């Protein structure tokens, strides 16, 4: 063997010796997710959300991670302020080098992060913000949304509201993107289903600052036969108490978005309203294999029962993990391509992110509120599969100008 051959073989061997450890290190490096949410502003929903996020991440990593790489999440608190969310997104992308962004609770915050994602060409998997603008009017290539939207949940409730023997409706909703969107779609969809309905009053109190007495008085003055309520959290508690005290709910039908979720129903305790038609989460009554496994694992990990926020946090991680396993490395354009049309296993059953608008088909539960053992619960509920409550593709194309 001449010296040239020996030298080439030596260089090849040395190259293998150097490259192998580099590959091993790369496979062990975490895939970092930048998670931005309103933790201090909305703790009732977001503490269970974060608990379940951690549970899901632990399960993914215990099973070998993503191609041998663990998931790692950098949590950030936007305090409910869009400007803070955008600043944090920039820090996570530029300083922390996260592979993608996720999270969002309030709709105005979610829209701000979605715009950042589009401008900076970064994947954003929005978990909770419900406004339809996130995937339609302001939808973009880089933004996807997990949870059933205001359109979807309003359509689910309209299906029940249209059966009621009432014509005169009033609405009450927080005065920001989510509340405005929910009222818009409820009015439009109910009018389509029942053209003789009338909307006789609207109340849009400031989020977190409802003057419940004045709001109830204004609604009562319009003398509606039914009310569509979109308030949640502390605003809902105040609205229910004042409405009950002043007799607003007597002999009136109430249709209410999100009120059946335990994070909002449980704080009412024995003041929880009865007979409201709601979307929610009857966590203690769902016994499908997927949900039972999730509920049991959550209880073991946190010594507590799950809330709807828990489902959203868990499913967001699992959807991201499903996407990452389909591609060799977390490069943005590859992740975006994998997300479009992605099927994933939700706690509620099979779902997918639609290619046409990046909206997931995860559904919601529709039922009625009741009191049992001095606590609010859902009864007569059913699961509404999200894919059945979305407009057809030709309509979506008119709602999503960016295509």
Biggest sheet record: 7 strands, mixed
The number of helical runs is 13
The ordered H/E elements are HEHEHEHEEHEHEHEHEHEHHHEEEEH
Cα shape: globular
Structural class by helix and strand composition = alpha/beta
Mean pLDDT score, rounded?
A: 93
What percent strand?
A: 15-25%
Main-sheet strand order equals 7-6-8-9-10-13-14
Question: Total strand count, please?
Answer: 14
Helix percentage: 40-55%
Question: Mind telling me the C-alpha Rg?
Answer: 24 Å
Low-pLDDT runs of 5+ residues are 1-27
- How far the N terminus sits from the C terminus, by CA atoms, comes to 63 Å
Structural account:
It is a single chain. With 403 residues, the protein is of the alpha/beta class. It is built from 13 helices and 14 strands. A 7-stranded mixed β-sheet has the order 7-6-8-9-10-13-14, with helices on both faces. Helix 2 packs parallel to helix 11 (308-324). The longest helix has 26 residues, at 3-28. It is globular. Mean pLDDT is 93; it is low at 1-27.
